[in-house]
Amino acid sequence: DAKTTQPPSMDCAEGRAANLPCNHSTISGNEYVYWYRQIHSQGPQYIIHGLKNNETNEMASLIITEDRKSSTLILPHATLRDTAVYYCIVLANFGNEKLTFGTGTRLTIIP
Amino acid sequence: DTAVSQTPKYLVTQMGNDKSIKCEQNLGHDTMYWYKQDSKKFLKIMFSYNNKELIINETVPNRFSPKSPDKAHLNLHINSLELGDSAVYFCASSHPFSPLHFGNGTRLTVT
């Protein structure tokens, strides 16, 4: 699986959009970009995933660059409950069996 | 109506003991997993079962033995516990080619 690079930490004001970047310059054509998050003392939670098109669901939007070498997770109106560690993962064939988490980005929402 | 539930939430035990962690999911998923999150917060897959059959067995000491009595349960037995086994253990489940649903973890402390 391709490796990802994320900033170790970010702050965002409550109510503003949180934009979390991820670099995955060695991504292969059949690899998806997945985002999970882990709120303190909880298990990881799936947020969104995509292959090459931008995706949106009730939690977030995922913007993938045309060359697929990077992506941005957008939380449109961040709340205090969005404070968590966010993991960007690339994985082939939808298979979650080898889901491997890196160090992620610790996002802190500031009141 | 918890989707993936683990018991116990906390487990403190002495070196050399044998302990079990139970996991149950009520989502009707075919595949269940055990992950380990160490003190540095890295989350790594240990085992994966599909319809009670072992699919993935990462490089895990054979003191760790998963047991799946039915599709909705995947228990983790650990024999001869060592200090290095101290970690948070997460159970997860999924349909094929779908995101994982995680439990809230079992914090194991070996003294």
Largest interface: A-B, 22 and 23 residues
Distance between the termini of chain B: 34 Å
Question: What is the residue-averaged pLDDT of chain B?
Answer: 91
Total number of strands of chain B: 11
CA-based gyration radius of chain A: 13 Å
User: Count of DSSP helices of chain B?
Assistant: 0
Global morphology of chain A: globular
Uncertain stretches of 5 or more adjacent residues of chain B = none
What structural class should be given to the helix and strand makeup of chain A? mainly beta
Q: Which parts of chain A are unreliable, with pLDDT below 50 for 5 consecutive residues or more?
A: none
Oligomer: heterodimer
Strand content of chain B: over 45%
Percentage of β-strand residues of chain A: over 45%
Largest sheet of chain A: 5 strands, mixed
- C-alpha Rg of chain B (nearest Å): 13 Å
Helix/sheet category of chain B: mainly beta
- What is the end-to-end distance of chain A? 37 Å
Order of helices and strands of chain A: EEEEEEEEE
Task: Explain briefly what this protein structure is.
The complex is a heterodimer of chains A (111) and B (111). With 111 residues, chain A is mainly beta.
Task: Give a structural overview.
The complex is a heterodimer of chains A (111) and B (111). With 111 residues, chain A is mainly beta. Chain A is built from no helices and nine strands. Chain A has strands spanning 9-13, 18-23, 31-38, 45-50, 55-56, 61-64, 70-75, 84-92, 105-110. In chain A, strands 1-9-8-3-4 form a five-stranded mixed β-sheet, with no helix packed on it. In chain A, strands 2-7-6-5 form a four-stranded antiparallel β-sheet, with no helix packed on it. Chain A is globular and about 40 Å long. In chain A, 34% of the residues are buried. The model of chain A has no long low-confidence stretch (mean pLDDT 92). Helix content of chain B is 0%, strand content 57%. Chain B is mainly β and 111 residues long. Chain B is built from no helices and eleven strands. In chain B, strands 2, 4, 5, 6, 9, 10 and 11 form a seven-stranded mixed β-sheet that branches. A four-stranded antiparallel β-sheet of chain B has the order 1-3-8-7, with no helix packed on it. In chain B, a hairpin with a 2-residue loop joins strand 7 (64-70) and strand 8 (73-78). The radius of gyration of chain B is 13 Å and the shape is globular. The A-B interface holds A 34, 36, 38, 41-46, 49, 85, 93-103 and B 4, 31, 33, 41-45, 48, 55-56, 90, 92, 94, 97-105.
